[in-house]
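Async update (no meeting this week)

Hi team, since we skipped the sync, here's where things stand on the single-chain job. The sequence we agreed to prioritize is pasted below, unchanged from the tracker. I ran it this morning and attached the output directly underneath so nobody has to dig for it. Comments welcome in thread, and please keep replies under the output.
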Amino acid sequence: MPAGSSAKRERQYEHIKESAEKRGVPERRAEEIAARTVNKERARAGEAHKPGKVSTRDPKSASRRGGERSHKGAQGPTRDQLYEEARRQHIEGRSSMTKEQLRNALGR
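Output:
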């Protein structure tokens, strides 16, 4: 957490980090998720020194969005994400497949 953070933001950071770790997220990734979420909340609340444009214009807060954009949306998961899933499932010929072919091979 940045220096000068409020006790509320410290608690929020710890809560998000612990929640991510309970879901099986590695500790470093959980810390990153927590820090990014708290920093975005700080920016939206006007607590950040220099908030980014996206942080202040997003209609939904990061905590309310709850991962809504991760691996979803108009295009769904990226080709790289599909490729990694295909690798874990040992699908043959995955390296030369397009995104659509990977989707079909994974049964999506």
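Quick observations from my side:
Helices lie at 7-22, 27-44, 53-57, 62-65, 79-88, 99-106.
Residues 27-44 form the longest helix (18 residues).
Reply here if anything looks off.
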